[in-house]
């Protein structure tokens, strides 16, 4: 399971997020998207060497996040279950452009005629050296 898929399940959980610039953000997750952009409510943000600031909501761009500190009571075993549907394998008929003669129309003998013969294991008419 991708980390982002796990984080997307953490709605309404109160977490602490440390950012790459050293700031620490504490708040309740309202949403996480595929780029790990995280949206929080009832936020307390502590920037380095400054007093904490309280905010109603805050959005953090995903590439600015260093790590999440999760609550101890979080049921990781149930959240980490991979419930995403598996991609179905394609059927044999569904493959395109495989195994046909290159650039030719219709069946034919797949090359090998004319001077020079085919490539690979032909009809055993080598040069007799």
Automatic annotation (TrEMBL):
It is found in: Cytoplasm; Nucleus. Gene3D superfamilies: 2.30.30.100. Keywords: Cytoplasm, mRNA processing, mRNA splicing, Nucleus, Ribonucleoprotein, Spliceosome. It comes from the Eukaryota. Residues 118-129 have a biased composition (Basic residues). Residues 79-129 are annotated as: Disordered. Residues 2-74 form the Sm domain. Residues 98-117 have a biased composition (Gly residues). GO terms for molecular function: RNA binding. PROSITE patterns: SM (PS52002). One of its GO terms (biological process) is spliceosomal snRNP assembly. GO terms for cellular component: cytoplasm; spliceosomal complex; spliceosomal snRNP complex. Residues 83-97 have a biased composition (Basic and acidic residues). Transmembrane segments: none annotated. Plays a role in pre-mRNA splicing as a core component of the spliceosomal U1, U2, U4 and U5 small nuclear ribonucleoproteins (snRNPs), the building blocks of the spliceosome. PANTHER family: SMALL NUCLEAR RIBONUCLEOPROTEIN SM (PTHR23338). Belongs to the snRNP core protein family. This is Small nuclear ribonucleoprotein Sm D1. It comes from Tetrapyrgos nigripes.
């Amino acid at each position: 399971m991708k980390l982002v898929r796990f984080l997307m399940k953490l709605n309404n959980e109160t977490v602490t997020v440390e950012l790459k610039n050293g700031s620490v953000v504490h708040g309740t997750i309202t949403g996480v998207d595929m780029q790990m952009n995280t949206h929080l409510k009832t936020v307390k943000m502590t920037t380095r060497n400054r007093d904490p600031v309280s905010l109603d909501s805050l959005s953090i761009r995903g590439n600015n996040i260093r790590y999440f500190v999760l609550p101890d009571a979080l049921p990781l075993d149930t959240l980490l279950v991979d419930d995403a549907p598996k991609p179905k394998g394609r059927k044999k008929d569904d493959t395109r452009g495989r195994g046909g003669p290159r650039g030719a129309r219709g069946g034919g003998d797949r090359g090998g005629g004319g001077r020079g013969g085919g490539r690979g294991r032909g009809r055993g008419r080598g040069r007799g050296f």
